[in-house]
Amino acid sequence: VMSILLHGDAAFAGQGVVYETFHLSDLPSYTTNGTIHVVVNNQIGFTTDPRMARSSPYPTDVARVVNAPIFHVNADDPEAVMYVCSVAAEWRNTFNKDVVVDLVCYRRRGHNEMDEPMFTQPLMYKQIHKQVPVLKKYADKLIADGTVTLQEFEEEIAKYDRICEEAYTRSKDKKILHIKHWLDSPWPGFFNADGEPKSMSCPPTGISEELLTHIGNVASSVPVEDFKIHSGLSRILKARAEMTRSRVVDWALAEYMAFGSVLKEGIHVRLSGQDVERGTF
């Protein structure tokens, strides 16, 4: 399995989550052993000039915080894109580190159906309207080289259009999703034959008071003998033992009981975050 993340240029430079996930990339419990980041760089984001949107030359500069290699490639050259993507995959598989492919391209139409890009970027869009679309440019090159004939090209386009049209037609009468092989853990019997969810009853999840008391006592004790505990922690543990005796819970003890009961059933619990190892909340 290899993770591939698709980004826009403005999002890559502007969203804090990008910077945060780069810093997760090499942490022992979080690494994906290298992610390939593909940036679809239309050089404009939504409507804003790069010089008004960021302080560094490239939208991908944020990847330099982990020294990830960054390939800037002309997306009008499909063979160059394929080559760069092969190198990126090889880098990731060899070194298990993140790598970035920056597809330098353009957006032919507006940001959405309502957007007229000539309002905000008239000079850029005058240039874009003169650009030969990449499919035509590459097809013309292959036909000129004698790699394919015009007929073969037209047949390939017709074949692709047919696939799309047939899928669109089929989608109208789909009731049940046939994507079980994509899911981590498909739930058998979740839908009935008509594609409607079955009514579900939840198994009882309660536990005995005896077990809760046991978890409360464990949560307020120190497992190591002759271990000198910090006096502040000692107070917290005493208060917790007292609560357990009095059949009272606060938020922290309730969490302990939830985790403890799940652990007692043999289910692994992993805590992550800023303060969880302290156990004081």
UniProtKB/TrEMBL annotation:
<dbReference type="InterPro" id="IPR011603">
    <property type="entry name" value="2oxoglutarate_DH_E1"/>
</dbReference>
<dbReference type="GO" id="GO:0045252">
    <property type="term" value="C:oxoglutarate dehydrogenase complex"/>
</dbReference>
<dbReference type="GO" id="GO:0030976">
    <property type="term" value="F:thiamine pyrophosphate binding"/>
</dbReference>
<keyword id="KW-0809">Transit peptide</keyword>
<keyword id="KW-0560">Oxidoreductase</keyword>
<dbReference type="InterPro" id="IPR029061">
    <property type="entry name" value="THDP-binding"/>
</dbReference>
<keyword id="KW-0786">Thiamine pyrophosphate</keyword>
<protein>
    <submittedName>
        <fullName>OGDHL protein</fullName>
    </submittedName>
</protein>
<dbReference type="InterPro" id="IPR001017">
    <property type="entry name" value="DH_E1"/>
</dbReference>
<dbReference type="GO" id="GO:0004591">
    <property type="term" value="F:oxoglutarate dehydrogenase (succinyl-transferring) activity"/>
</dbReference>
<dbReference type="Pfam" id="PF00676">
    <property type="entry name" value="E1_dh"/>
</dbReference>
<comment type="similarity">
    <text>Belongs to the alpha-ketoglutarate dehydrogenase family.</text>
</comment>
<feature type="domain" description="Dehydrogenase E1 component">
    <location>
        <begin position="2"/>
        <end position="179"/>
    </location>
</feature>
<dbReference type="GO" id="GO:0005739">
    <property type="term" value="C:mitochondrion"/>
</dbReference>
<dbReference type="GO" id="GO:0006099">
    <property type="term" value="P:tricarboxylic acid cycle"/>
</dbReference>
